[in-house]
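Postdoc handover notes: sequence design on the structure in folder B. Input tokens:
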């Protein structure tokens, strides 16, 4: 099973970090390997997911949306109903428990829209740990409510002034903090990105999404679905849904953010339009120019606004295990509105990218087929954007 011992999924992944972090990554790898097979750790993790985060989340048959679109039957995996409003809490709780095993009393995290920052601050409050969240100054302005939430939860929010003052710069600063405070601090990374073993740790914690979906779908349909569909930022909700179905005859589709359009260059779609390079400690598809400089990204949804992608997705692309497509800002906003009106569910703009692809899928499928869509989060955080940006 991948990754291999050095953390590679074929040529993707690895650990491209300063020497000072090698010890911490190796320690993390060792401890994680031990607890991964431990029943008591698994039980503790599932206890908090159930009693605290509200799992299992429902797998809901979207009858009205299916009727409207007229293709495969649509099932929504309702991660929007998780505590704090998205799938991010699964990973935050898992890694906070892991930090406890490592005897680390301080957590640091990066955040773009603030969703992961809120999840990390929540887990830190729950387990009585100190928490610092790095956030670009620009993002702090755009997501003021989440900044306030993190502070209420007892976290320190540290503004990042470098680069474009957004997520990629926040990750750089978090890594810098980690280098300095590595003995006392666990870096709680928010997606299946970064140096080994993070991509596989985050995948494993998020796999609860796919494990539940598989069981729930089998219980109602007596067979497996034909398609799985999820949006891809760093790729954690997608890999969490896909991974437990890896060996099954189920098609995987990941949807990246095409922003203003793939041809405009103003997008966040490294798998569709990027090339292979190194960023944040991993080798993967990135948005970079011919000189290897990371390009500025754009998406209406802050959670997808990242120039890289988890190495396991690069691998799935290479071997053809998953298909990667994209949806523009305006397609996502249309799908956002449609789900509100047809099902009474306000999705996150990130999730709306996956929903946007249902229109395309409907044309290729019949009512005999089925698709599970990961509804990665709820859209309360996006109301400002959707109501202001009628121009999209
Ligand atoms: C952060 C976020 C995403 C994108 O992250 P992935 O790691 O690609 O899952 C998607 N949906 C929501 C609701 C998010 O908060």
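Designed sequence:
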């Amino acid at each position: 099973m991948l990754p291999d011992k050095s953390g590679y999924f074929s040529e993707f992944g690895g650990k491209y970090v300063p020497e000072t972090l090698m010890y911490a990554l190796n320690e993390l790898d060792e401890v994680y390997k031990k607890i991964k097979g431990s029943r008591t750790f698994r039980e503790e993790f599932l206890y908090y997911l159930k009693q605290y985060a509200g799992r299992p989340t429902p797998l809901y048959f979207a009858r009205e949306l299916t009727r409207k679109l007229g293709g495969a039957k649509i099932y929504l995996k309702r991660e929007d109903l998780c505590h704090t409003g998205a799938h991010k809490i699964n990973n935050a709780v898992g890694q906070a428990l892991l930090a406890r095993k490592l005897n680390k009393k301080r957590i640091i995290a990066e955040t773009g829209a603030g969703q992961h920052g809120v999840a990390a601050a929540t887990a830190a409050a729950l387990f009585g740990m100190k928490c610092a969240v790095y956030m670009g100054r620009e993002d702090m302005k755009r997501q003021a409510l989440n900044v306030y939430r993190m502070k209420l939860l007892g976290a320190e929010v540290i503004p990042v002034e470098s680069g474009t003052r957004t997520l990629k710069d926040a990750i750089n600063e978090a890594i810098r903090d980690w280098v300095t405070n590595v003995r006392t601090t666990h870096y709680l990374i928010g997606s299946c990105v970064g140096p080994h073993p993070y991509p596989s740790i985050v995948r494993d914690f998020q796999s609860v999404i796919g494990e539940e979906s598989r069981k729930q779908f089998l219980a109602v349909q007596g067979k497996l679905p034909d398609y799985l569909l999820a949006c891809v930022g760093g790729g954690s909700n997608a890999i969490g849904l896909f991974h437990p179905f890896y060996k099954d005859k189920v098609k995987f589709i990941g949807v990246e953010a095409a922003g203003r359009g793939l041809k405009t260059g103003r997008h966040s779609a490294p798998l569709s339009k990027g090339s292979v390079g190194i960023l944040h400690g991993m080798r993967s598809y990135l948005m970079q120019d011919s000189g290897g400089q990371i390009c500025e990204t754009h998406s209406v949804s802050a959670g997808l606004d990242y120039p890289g992608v988890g190495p396991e997705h690069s691998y799935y692309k290479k071997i053809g295990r998953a298909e990667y497509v994209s949806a523009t800002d305006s397609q996502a906003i249309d799908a956002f509105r449609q789900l509100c009106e047809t099902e009474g569910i306000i999705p996150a703009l990130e999730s709306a990218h996956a929903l946007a692809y249902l229109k395309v899928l409907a044309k290729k499928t019949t009512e005999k087929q089925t698709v599970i869509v990961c509804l990665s989060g709820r859209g309360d955080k996006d109301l400002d954007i959707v109501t202001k940006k009628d121009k999209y």
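Context for whoever picks this up: The longest helix spans residues 19-36. Don't rerun without checking with the PI first.
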